């Protein structure tokens, strides 16, 4: 009997499990449809999810709804922004509400690995404002939403949340967020218990980082008044790294635009070390070993209304007295730290914010550093009163604060003061703005794992005045490059206070070596160097808001695979453009002159527009150095010699600072001073067709030609070449695809033609004589027209001797031969006449001379 009872119980249990597993399947389509219809009825956004899973067993007595890979993408201004991307959203829904098929009651929500990006434009428009307007909702009143929140719990696992508010200049990022909240959301008044764990919290306001990658833990119970949308913070704990804070007060949202608040916060533990934990570089380096003593306090209040037009009034205070910081393993310490600072705003008007640090003092070992800072009216007319005086030994600083993977040394000696209003600068009333002092650097060295190349500054001096900053005695070395410079920055205060002002400067710079490859990109590894001869460069973006004039001189410059020497000229930097003025340099056995521009108005598409002058450059070295020559003038590969040219050139550059060949436009005049071409396949083909090996090699001397590059083709204007009695006129074009189309008009001595070519000429002339009824023999020179086609590696050639064999053409050809013979006879006859005349003239001259001699002799005798 007992056995039968067990079997029945087990059977019922199995049946219930089977039912629990099967029941959700009956509602899957219906729930899926209701979720999608509910979303579409209420939001203006692109909402999608890949899969919907239902479960009763794991969530009993609720139905578990799992929505996988949920994404919410905005529209209009935010059509490229993903508001939310959630790996899995789980809703636990009341089972009874599902069975009734009416309104589903959501009891809990869990978000797994959500990425939330909340964005506010400068106009104040927010990307989360996706709910359809009331007019759309009234039309749907007959179909109310099928989901109702009856929350008891919600949670977030491993989330990333970004809030970027351009209208306020506020940015916050929460990395690896884990958060839970428990409370009865069905009640108008209830307590919500929350726990938060954020691995990295970053907060920026006005471009200043107030928290940077700080770890946060918080236990925060909140009293919720749903009717009045008021949230009151009871006794709580908020831990930022090692700093323990408490915040009490309330936050209320009486309408859609305002947040009303009244908060007080203070640090519960007044230890300097806990505050220092907020400084990332200190917290990351053996923080547990740090010795920090002295009195520390921090507190503040915020009270008022936050909206697009106002901030709450606030006040924050920080105090450090008799502080000392030291690592036991290091010899030096920061002693006698005294800091008092306050940030206050009495009424929520941003312009009434005051930052006041009346004095701070500290000693690096025994060397004191003192300063002060006061900032008022930051919006309307900023007032600044600051001072800094002290000598800083950077090596000693690293002995106090160890900096992992970094080497820092040198002495900075500063004594600077500045006081005045921005309006004085705007009006160029520099006498009303006091700025003076100097900063001297000696033996500064900076290197490390995250530094592309070591930086060394043996000496530099900056002298401050209201009008300018003067740089003198600068000598520096960056990697293998060295620099010496002096000059001035002429409107640094206007540049600092006005975002639309450019920083102006005039500098003289000289160098014995500038390695541009090093300065423009990461140094290639040995393995990478073994694989490729040339390391790829990256685009150098010319800074904006810079107006510099630099007179530069360098003994040697390494750029890409060019070895440059004796470089000098003027560089003008303005409007994201570098202008080259009378820039000259020795390279590739010649001299290069440049005037033009390099512009990065579009950093993804730099552009160069330059007039070049090249004097006596080596052809082979130019071919190896310039990819443009390789593609558009491959004949240079087979030429040895030198050339000069003047050309105008412009093109776009790609991400590796190489020309975009289809965009090249260039024209100019080239003088091939001396060159020997040997092994060039089109010449080999021509020599073979004419049965003359002498054409396989071509020597050029002082050959001048015009050229033009457009739409990826090199167009060559007609020019003449003379070789061993051959006169050749060349013109045509070739392209990036290596195709060529050249016409060669040649006058070739018959003696240079092979037997086959001469036979062809004789046969053609015989046919022409026959048709023209003449009997003319070919002269010693033969006219040959050659059309070169195909490609440089696989050329084709079409030869034409004289004119085609139509009757009229035959007469023209014969007449041409006759004319040549006639001219030849006339030349010979004229030569004979000239000879006879010359002899007769000489006889007359001799006779006259004899007569004169006899005449003078007679007179002398008398």
Please give the oligomerization state of what you see.
Answer: single chain
Task: Give start-end ranges of low-pLDDT stretches.
Answer: 1-23, 136-143, 523-534, 803-814, 851-862
Main sheet summary: 39 strands, mixed
The shape is: extended
Approximate strand percentage = over 45%
Rg, Å, rounded: 44 Å
Which structural class should the secondary elements be placed in?
alpha+beta
Give helix % range. Answer: 10-25%
According to DSSP, the number of beta strands is 39
Q: Counting H and I runs of at least 4 residues, what is the number of helices?
A: 15
Mean pLDDT: 79
Distance between the termini: 185 Å
Question: What would you say this structure looks like, in words?
Answer:
- The protein has 862 residues and is α+β, with helices and mostly antiparallel strands.
- 22% of the residues lie in helices and 51% in strands.
- It has 15 helices and 39 strands.
- The protein has a 39-stranded mixed beta sheet that branches.
- Helix 14 packs across helix 15.
Architecture blueprint of SSEs:
Layout: H1 2-42, E1 46-48, E2 51-55, E3 62-73, E4 82-94, H2 95-100, E5 104-120, H3 134-139, E6 147-165, E7 170-182, E8 189-205, E9 208-225, E10 230-233, E11 237-240, E12 243-252, E13 259-267, H4 272-276, H5 280-283, E14 291-306, E15 313-326, E16 333-345, E17 354-364, E18 367-376, E19 383-393, H6 394-400, E20 406-421, H7 422-426, E21 434-448, E22 455-464, E23 469-478, E24 481-489, H8 492-497, E25 503-511, E26 514-515, H9 516-520, H10 526-531, E27 546-559, E28 562-574, E29 577-587, E30 590-599, E31 607-618, H11 619-625, H12 627-632, E32 639-652, E33 665-678, H13 681-689, E34 697-710, E35 713-723, E36 726-735, E37 740-749, H14 755-772, E38 781-790, E39 795-801, H15 807-861
Parallel strand pairs: 5-6, 25-27, 26-27
Antiparallel strand pairs: 1-3, 2-3, 3-4, 4-5, 6-7, 7-8, 8-9, 9-10, 9-11, 10-12, 11-12, 12-13, 13-14, 14-15, 15-16, 16-17, 17-18, 18-19, 19-20, 20-21, 21-22, 22-23, 23-24, 24-25, 27-28, 28-29, 29-30, 30-31, 31-32, 32-33, 33-34, 34-35, 35-36, 36-37, 37-38, 38-39
């Amino acid at each position: 009997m007992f056995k039968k009872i067990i079997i029945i119980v087990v059977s019922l249990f199995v049946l219930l499990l089977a039912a629990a597993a099967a029941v959700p399947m009956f509602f899957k389509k219906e729930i899926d449809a209701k979720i999608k219809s509910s979303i579409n009825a209420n939001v203006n956004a692109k909402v999608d999810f890949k899969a919907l899973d239902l479960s009763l067993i794991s969530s009993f007595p609720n139905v578990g709804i799992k929505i996988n890979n949920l994404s919410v993408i905005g529209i209009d201004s935010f059509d490229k922004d993903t508001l939310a991307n959630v790996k899995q959203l789980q809703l636990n829904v009341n089972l009874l509400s599902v069975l009734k098929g009416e309104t589903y009651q959501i009891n809990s929500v869990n978000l797994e690995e959500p990425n939330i990006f909340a964005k506010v434009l400068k106009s104040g428009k927010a990307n989360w404002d996706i709910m359809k307007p009331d007019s759309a909702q009234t039309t749907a009143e007959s179909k109310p939403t099928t989901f109702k929140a009856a929350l008891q719990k919600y949670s977030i696992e491993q989330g990333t949340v970004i809030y970027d508010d351009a209208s306020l200049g506020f940015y916050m990022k929460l990395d690896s967020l884990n958060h839970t909240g428990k409370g009865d959301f069905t009640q108008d008044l209830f307590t919500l218990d929350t726990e938060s764990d954020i691995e990295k919290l970053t907060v920026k306001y006005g471009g200043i980082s107030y928290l940077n990658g700080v770890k946060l833990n918080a236990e925060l119970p909140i009293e919720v008044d749903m009717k009045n949308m008021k949230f009151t913070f009871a006794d709580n704990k908020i831990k930022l790294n090692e700093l323990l804070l408490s915040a009490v007060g309330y936050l209320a949202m009486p309408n859609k635009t305002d947040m009303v608040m009244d908060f007080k916060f203070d640090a519960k533990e007044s230890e300097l070390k806990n505050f220092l934990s907020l400084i990332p570089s200190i917290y990351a380096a053996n923080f547990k070993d740090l010795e920090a003593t002295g009195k520390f306090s921090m507190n503040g209040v915020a009270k008022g209304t936050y909206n697009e037009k106002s901030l709450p009034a606030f006040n924050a205070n920080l105090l450090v007295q008799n502080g000392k910081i030291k690592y036991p393993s290091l010899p030096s310490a920061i002693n006698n730290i005294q800091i008092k600072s306050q940030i206050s705003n009495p009424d929520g008007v941003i312009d009434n914010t005051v930052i006041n640090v009346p004095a701070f003092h500290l000693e690096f070992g025994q060397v004191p550093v003192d300063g002060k800072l006061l900032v008022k009216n930051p919006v309307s007319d900023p007032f600044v009163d600051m001072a800094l005086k002290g000598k800083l030994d950077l090596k000693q600083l690293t002995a106090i604060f160890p900096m992992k993977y970094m080497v820092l040394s040198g002495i900075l000696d500063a004594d600077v003061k500045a006081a005045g209003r921005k309006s004085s600068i705007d009006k160029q009333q520099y006498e009303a703005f006091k700025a003076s002092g100097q900063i001297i650097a000696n033996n500064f060295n900076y290197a490390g794992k995250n530094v592309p190349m070591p930086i060394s500054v043996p000496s530099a001096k900056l002298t401050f005045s209201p009008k300018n900053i003067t740089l003198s005695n600068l000598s520096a070395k960056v990697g293998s490059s060295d620099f010496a410079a002096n000059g001035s920055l002429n409107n640094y205060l206007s540049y600092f206070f006005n975002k639309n002002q450019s920083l102006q400067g005039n500098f003289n710079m000289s160098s014995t070596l500038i390695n541009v490859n090093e300065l423009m990109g990461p140094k290639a590894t040995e393995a990478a160097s073994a694989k490729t001869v040339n390391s790829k460069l990256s685009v150098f973006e010319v800074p904006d808001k810079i107006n510099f004039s630099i007179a530069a001189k360098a003994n040697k410059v390494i750029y890409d695979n060019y070895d440059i020497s004796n470089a000098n000229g003027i560089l003008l930097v303005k409007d994201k453009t570098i202008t080259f003025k009378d820039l000259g340099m020795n390279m590739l056995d010649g001299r290069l002159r440049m005037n033009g521009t390099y512009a990065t108005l579009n950093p993804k598409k730099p552009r160069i527009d330059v007039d070049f002058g090249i004097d006596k450059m080596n052809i082979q070295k130019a071919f190896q150095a310039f990819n443009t020559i390789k593609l558009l003038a491959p004949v240079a590969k087979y030429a040895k010699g030198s050339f000069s040219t003047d050309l105008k050139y412009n093109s776009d550059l790609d991400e590796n600072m190489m020309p975009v060949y289809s965009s090249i436009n260039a024209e100019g005049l080239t003088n091939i001073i001396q060159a020997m071409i040997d092994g060039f396949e089109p010449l080999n083909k021509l020599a073979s067709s004419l049965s003359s090996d002498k054409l396989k090699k071509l020597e050029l001397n002082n050959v001048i030609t015009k050229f033009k590059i457009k739409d990826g083709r090199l167009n060559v204007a007609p020019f003449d070449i003379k070789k061993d009695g051959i006169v050749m006129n060349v013109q045509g074009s070739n392209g990036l695809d290596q195709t060529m189309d050249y016409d060669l008009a040649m006058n070739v001595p018959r003696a240079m033609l092979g037997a086959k070519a001469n036979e062809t000429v004789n046969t053609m002339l015989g046919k022409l004589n026959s048709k023209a009824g003449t009997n003319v023999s070919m002269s010693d020179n033969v006219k040959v027209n050659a059309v070169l086609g195909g490609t440089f590696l696989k050329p084709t050639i079409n030869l034409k001797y004289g004119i085609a064999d139509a009757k009229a053409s035959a007469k023209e050809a014969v007449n041409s031969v006759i004319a040549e013979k006639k001219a030849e006879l006339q030349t010979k006859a004229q030569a004979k006449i000239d000879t006879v005349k010359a002899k007769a003239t000489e006889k007359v001259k001799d006779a006259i001379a004899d007569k004169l001699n006899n005449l003078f002799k007679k007179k002398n005798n008398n």
